[in-house]
Design goal:
The chain has 162 residues and is of the alpha+beta class. Helices cover 13% and strands 31% of the residues. Strand 2 (53-54) and strand 3 (63-64) form a beta hairpin.
């Protein structure tokens, strides 16, 4: 794998793991991990109750077996690198992206947000439809954002619309 992402500061599509299938994304939320660097880190692997995250050794980037993933969110709650996203496609044609959010003021359900891709480019707007408050998650909030279905593989950050 190219290490160009270290110079750019973001991953290009050819550096990403394979995406889950549309069929799998419609069943329930699934973890998607964008962690390419071989560093000693394994909280996601250790926290997964369904053994859906594979690592041959502590330096290997984690890989998700999408069929084993139950969408429990234990991995996203412990990731120190903000590299895990929960993705889901809904029957109404919308998608959902759950991500860690560490900025003040904390987001709340119903907030409108600007959506940003890996490069930091604005790609649209969405609505927060669920929040796990920071006091329930080691001082990091989790937010689930409703987005157009075609953006679930792009949205990686949000900012409140003010």
């Amino acid at each position: 794998m190219s290490l160009g992402y270290l110079e750019r500061g973001y991953l290009e599509k050819d550096e990403l793991p394979p995406f889950p299938s549309e069929e799998r994304l419609k069943k329930r939320a699934v973890a998607y991990i964008e962690c390419p660097q071989p560093i000693p880190c394994s909280p996601c692997f250790e926290s997964c109750p369904s053994n859906a995250i594979e690592m041959k050794n502590i330096n290997d980037p984690p890989k998700v077996d999408y069929e084993k993933c139950t969408g429990c969110m234990k991995c996203i709650r412990v990731c120190p690198g903000l590299a895990i996203f929960m993705l889901r496609l809904r029957d109404d044609g919308m998608g959902e992206v759950t991500l860690q959010y560490e900025f003040l003021p904390w987001l709340k359900k119903g907030d409108r947000v600007k959506l940003y891709n890996r490069k930091g480019e604005e790609v649209g707007e969405g609505v927060v439809n669920w929040v796990l408050p920071p006091e329930r998650n080691d001082n990091t909030s989790l937010v689930r954002v409703e987005v157009p279905a075609e953006l679930i593989f792009e949205v990686r950050a949000v900012k409140p619309v003010r």
